[in-house]
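Reviewer 2 asked us to include a model.

Predict the structure of this chain.
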Amino acid sequence: MSTHPKLTTTPLTEEFLRGALELERTERGLLPHRLPARARAQNTDGQLAMAEAQPSGVRLALRTGATVLELEVLPTKRLYVGAPPRPDGVYELLVDGRHAGGTTVDGGNVLTIDMRTGSAGLTPGPTGTARFAGLAPGLKDVEIWLPHNETTELVALRADAPVEPMPHRGRKVWLHHGSSISQGSDAASPTTTWPAHAATLGGVELINLGYAGSALLDPFTARALRDTTADLISVKMGVNLVNTDLMRLRAFTPAVHGFLDTIREGHPTTPLLLVSPILCPIHEDTPGPSAADLGALAEGRLSFRAAGDRADVAGGKLTLNVIRDELARIVKQRAADDAHLYYLDGRELYGEADSAELPLPDQLHPDAATHLRIGERFAGLAFPADGPLAVAGL
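Predicted model (structure tokens):
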């Protein structure tokens, strides 16, 4: 006779999900999105399409007496030609707000990307199951944080006791937008990306709209921020505009104003913090685009280099220092009429001393330890009572 407990499937609905803007019903189940359908319909870029469907900051929030939980999923994993395999995405368990384990899932689709040619191909794969057993009996609040860098289709939730949505805890909602650094590139787990870590320290509920390679002042992203309910908002911008070489200073300034204007249509007095790029030595004074370092790739490493020419800055090409100066100027100008708009120089989160101690491994993205440091710095600067995103008293 089997000694395994009988597991019952609980239908997944939006009441169980936090941190997603929309859930797409698929043939198998639910696909969390971090951009609404209207925005996705206006996007033609495969990079953004991939990034917004990777559920950074998205988690299942349950109240249950279960001792065993299973989450069946269909992940989509990435494989870069010539580079070492990426680690599998982590499914992280929190019980009553405390870390209680993590696991990975076998199987899934594989997206193979060739950095030399820019081509990509998808190989379909089977579903897999994230299983958490040995949970303490008794009613408890459980969160399962989904991988921050793997598209994750939710197929089924199974448990050995009834499951219901976790009640909201009355925390303030922090809405954040940024690049791959905000999405969590190279963080160790979904709760240790710098925004998730900062949210934990600040006692706020995170909605993370960090999109790898895609913080590009898109109007549909601004509208998504405008239309999302939030108590606190931060926007971290700059590095993607440099490493894609997307625009010149003449276009950048009005685009920033337009982005902020759109957010203010839905959040006229919400505290709004504009954050400039952290230190990135290859692009401090050298414009983009960023290019894959083919020499490093030949050695089995993924790394990047600045492919622009410093002489082009005089003609309006963007560097991180140019962007920081202009963002500071824009905030100073707008703050005369907007008492709830603030600016933070990203080098206060990660600067020269940090770079010497914890250099960016691929020249663009922080490692796991640096994510924790940035999260601690942000929480310490933004969320205290005298900070721009003060949590108390809202």
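The radius of gyration is 21 Å. The longest strand covers residues 69-80. We have added this to the supplementary material.
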